[in-house]
Amino acid sequence: MIKLFSLKNAKKDGESPKTGTQKKSSAAQLRIQKGFVILDINELNLPKTCGTEFPDPDDLLTFKLVICPDEGFYKGGRFIFSFKVGPNYPHEPPKVKCETQVYHPNIDLEGNVCLNILREDWKPVLTINSIVYGLQYLFLEPNPEDPLNKDAAEVLQNNRRVFEQNVAKAIRGGYVGQYYFQRCLK
Amino acid sequence: MDSEYSHRKLSHLRKVLERSGPFCRPDFEPSSESLKFLMQTCKILVIGAGGLGCECLKNLSLMGFRQMHIIDMDIIDLSNLNRQFLFRHKDIGASKSETAAKFINDRIPGCNVIPHFCKIQDKNEDFYRQFHIIICGLDSIIARRWINGMLVSLLIYENGILDQSTVIPLVDGGTEGFKGNIRVVLPGLTACIECTLDLYPPQITYPLCTIANTPRLPEHCIEYVKVIQWPKENPFDCSIDGDDPQHINWIYEKSMERAVNFGIQGLTYRLVQGVVKNIIPAVASTNAVIASICCTEVFKLASSCSPSLNNYMIFTNTDGIYGYTYEAEKNINCLTCSQTIKEIEIKSIYIKLKDLIQLLCSKNDLQMKNPGITANISGKIKTLYIQSVPSIEEKTRQNLSKTLFDLGLRENSEIIVADVTTPNTIMLKIKLLKNS
Ligand SMILES: [Zn+2]
């Protein structure tokens, strides 16, 4: 057990504080959060269908993920997600939005994504990589059980062929039902 | 001053500090010096002047501590008055830290509490270095992590050995309704906040599809308005401010509509406030228990009279009273406290970045594969080179043929390196070889 203060040399006020280090606040915190992020970014092990884009390389907290599925319903499309890593990462997950309008049971037309690890199942041991794989999986296996876009989920459940056609239509650009989807071909 | 030590009101403290006993630490030496140390020298920082902070200031000042600082950025609100007992109705709108300091200083002769009406992030290393012990009663995990990072960064290692005089113990208390916890962190020696980040429960969230399509609880309706409807309709052209009654009102009305649509009962204005601001009702008695344990730990650390809590205690008083103590283990891969800053010697500050990378890959004790490098350049983190991410690689490639000097690095600059060969980032301080 360490004894922190022997009474004789416990005086602190007598110490001359090192001057010249007049940084407004320590870079310590910056370091920790960015430490997590650089680690995460550096070990990003992207599947070949995914790529990242960092508009500002000094800002590792803001970037985009581009997914171009090479199989499944969404083959041939190009979908962009924005990532924002907040100050409480990895205690809290990054905020992720889909920037491409997509006809998908688990993504609504405002770009909200229903993926469990983005909200209720997030844990600090998960990484940005986990989210990338989660998102990629959503395109391979859209899940009609937990829909965000109920119409799309219903179609997927009732008629896979019609769903497939709707997805293709949306990717090429056009109306599905009353909604217009912008072209997002690769 | 001498008469104060012998005053009757401190006789109970002298019984603990001037006599030995079976539960004392083996290295404890009873003496009258301890009380003098507490009263004259020992400098304590109390972070947060809320429910826990008020209790702590009161406890510490009655325990003999006289040199205290208190820091809090908040102002007093009507809803604080039931438990934050250093504040009165007339104080509403005033700074919590200033009001609390004045109350204690007026009430306890000789007490010198210095208030800081600001964020903890507004203070620098020199400010935090002056304290012997820091006690923390915060409801924010971000702030806890920040102060933890600050205390770790104050540690000084010489030849890999921690200089123990740079350790500033952190006693951290937290409460949530009828539950609470206390932990004692000796930065660099015992588990730090980051080592055990998973001990802090994440905010309650609900699956997006549930709140969008199958809401069952009033909370689901509120979350829906907060997460989906607000960004879509953006009613006030800004993000949600939980303290703005207009915002709360809008969310209340919209979630009420939704609750009616889905036949959900029990939605109230207070619940909306609670969900939006993530408020967990504060219970005065829980605060009192947690603060008293925290202050006892401060007293034990300052006087060495008794062994410290090792190192995490939980307390609940929902069904009777329950307390449990265990030792949270230090995480050897903790990004914050397992890092001792290493030094890397280079022959000149005019070598190019690619030469530095070459060095990182060839040096025997590093042998990295493709390091990603960022650096702290005058307080800002800059990305120097990351090979593994194409879009960053492209934008930072030109740095490879720049000299370290041109990139803003100097002797003693810190670079942060991540590589597949380590589970952790490595911090390297640049040193120039002597003979060049
Ligand atoms: Zn740690």
TrEMBL record, chain A:
<protein>
    <recommendedName>
        <fullName>E2 NEDD8-conjugating enzyme</fullName>
        <ecNumber>2.3.2.34</ecNumber>
    </recommendedName>
</protein>
<dbReference type="GO" id="GO:0005524">
    <property type="term" value="F:ATP binding"/>
</dbReference>
<feature type="domain" description="UBC core">
    <location>
        <begin position="27"/>
        <end position="176"/>
    </location>
</feature>
<keyword id="KW-0547">Nucleotide-binding</keyword>
<dbReference type="Pfam" id="PF00179">
    <property type="entry name" value="UQ_con"/>
</dbReference>
<comment type="similarity">
    <text>Belongs to the ubiquitin-conjugating enzyme family.</text>
</comment>
<dbReference type="InterPro" id="IPR050113">
    <property type="entry name" value="Ub_conjugating_enzyme"/>
</dbReference>
<dbReference type="InterPro" id="IPR016135">
    <property type="entry name" value="UBQ-conjugating_enzyme/RWD"/>
</dbReference>
<dbReference type="GO" id="GO:0061654">
    <property type="term" value="F:NEDD8 conjugating enzyme activity"/>
</dbReference>
<keyword id="KW-0067">ATP-binding</keyword>
<keyword id="KW-0808">Transferase</keyword>
<dbReference type="InterPro" id="IPR000608">
    <property type="entry name" value="UBC"/>
</dbReference>
<dbReference type="InterPro" id="IPR023313">
    <property type="entry name" value="UBQ-conjugating_AS"/>
</dbReference>
<comment type="pathway">
    <text>Protein modification; protein neddylation.</text>
</comment>
<feature type="active site" description="Glycyl thioester intermediate">
    <location>
        <position position="114"/>
    </location>
</feature>
<keyword id="KW-0833">Ubl conjugation pathway</keyword>
Automatic annotation (TrEMBL), chain B:
<dbReference type="GO" id="GO:0045116">
    <property type="term" value="P:protein neddylation"/>
</dbReference>
<keyword id="KW-0067">ATP-binding</keyword>
<dbReference type="GO" id="GO:0005737">
    <property type="term" value="C:cytoplasm"/>
</dbReference>
<dbReference type="GO" id="GO:0005634">
    <property type="term" value="C:nucleus"/>
</dbReference>
<keyword id="KW-0833">Ubl conjugation pathway</keyword>
<dbReference type="GO" id="GO:0005524">
    <property type="term" value="F:ATP binding"/>
</dbReference>
<comment type="function">
    <text>Catalytic subunit of the dimeric E1 enzyme, which activates NEDD8.</text>
</comment>
<dbReference type="InterPro" id="IPR000594">
    <property type="entry name" value="ThiF_NAD_FAD-bd"/>
</dbReference>
<keyword id="KW-0547">Nucleotide-binding</keyword>
<dbReference type="Pfam" id="PF08825">
    <property type="entry name" value="E2_bind"/>
</dbReference>
<dbReference type="InterPro" id="IPR014929">
    <property type="entry name" value="E2-binding"/>
</dbReference>
<dbReference type="InterPro" id="IPR023318">
    <property type="entry name" value="Ub_act_enz_dom_a_sf"/>
</dbReference>
<feature type="domain" description="E2 binding">
    <location>
        <begin position="344"/>
        <end position="433"/>
    </location>
</feature>
<dbReference type="GO" id="GO:0019781">
    <property type="term" value="F:NEDD8 activating enzyme activity"/>
</dbReference>
<dbReference type="InterPro" id="IPR035985">
    <property type="entry name" value="Ubiquitin-activating_enz"/>
</dbReference>
<feature type="active site" description="Glycyl thioester intermediate">
    <location>
        <position position="209"/>
    </location>
</feature>
<dbReference type="Pfam" id="PF00899">
    <property type="entry name" value="ThiF"/>
</dbReference>
<comment type="similarity">
    <text>Belongs to the ubiquitin-activating E1 family. UBA3 subfamily.</text>
</comment>
<dbReference type="InterPro" id="IPR045886">
    <property type="entry name" value="ThiF/MoeB/HesA"/>
</dbReference>
<dbReference type="InterPro" id="IPR033127">
    <property type="entry name" value="UBQ-activ_enz_E1_Cys_AS"/>
</dbReference>
<keyword id="KW-0436">Ligase</keyword>
<protein>
    <recommendedName>
        <fullName>NEDD8-activating enzyme E1 catalytic subunit</fullName>
        <ecNumber>6.2.1.64</ecNumber>
    </recommendedName>
</protein>
